[in-house]
Specification:
240 residues, Rossmann fold, 4-stranded antiparallel sheet, 38% helix, 26% strand, binds adenosine-5'-triphosphate, binds magnesium ion
Amino acid sequence: MSAPLLSVYDLYAGYQDFDILKGIDLEVHPGEIVCVIGPNGAGKSTVFKAIYGFVKVRQGAVRFDGQEITNARPRDVLNAGISIVPQLRSVFPQMTVMENLEMGMYLEKNQTRVRRRIQYILDLFPRLGERRAQMAGTMSGGEQRMLEIGRALMLEPKMVMMDEPSAGLAPLIIRTIFENIQRLNREIGLTVLMIEQNARQGLEASHRGYVLELGRNAYEGPARALLDNRDVRRAFLGGQ
Ligand SMILES: Nc1ncnc2c1ncn2[C@@H]1O[C@H](COP(=O)(O)OP(=O)(O)OP(=O)(O)O)[C@@H](O)[C@H]1O
Ligand SMILES: [Mg+2]
């Protein structure tokens, strides 16, 4: 296998004086879709926050693309090539689709480059193209999610981290979101690290997966193997 793009090693992090993560290990290889699952409160979002510099790493290391980014500031993590779609909705509701995409590149002075990139995103998501002048807050939940993903792609990241991309969406729309993630992976080689509460569907859309429990690694492996694992199924996939 290729060298990992992201490697998280023995990660300890938490809030106040309390460790939520107690030695998490995780790797993402270039071109992979990796899904992190686990019960509420397991520490999944905290892993993302620790990678992104929103919470302090107390022990362990984060490396990305050959660079050590442990406790780097969010801006530097972004510059290293990781963009993030957070767990809570993050479109700017009073701005149009176009303006939201511009915000994904708001420090870029070269307007030609910004226009070109927006056109690229609109071509990737024709639905956003049709709605380019619409206020983001008036779009459906699924369209807003697509816009968030599009905005995260504006800076040509090497990897996108998505915290529960399917949250709060209707079953049919959830399928569309996962199909789009797989399409981006296939068509532009997008590397994705995502957290999913819809564990079965998340794994079905992924190459590999991690199960976290109480701030530790519980299981990991090819997504197919996790889906077939009896213990994982019973404890984390609704027993199906
Ligand atoms: N800002 C905070 N201050 C204190 N404790 C926090 C904070 N954010 C999260 N926690 C606690 O850390 C633990 C892990 O939270 P985290 O959000 O990482 O879980 P999660 O696995 O993402 O859960 P969910 O599936 O509900 O999103 C929880 O017990 C939570 O209450
Ligand atoms: Mg979470």
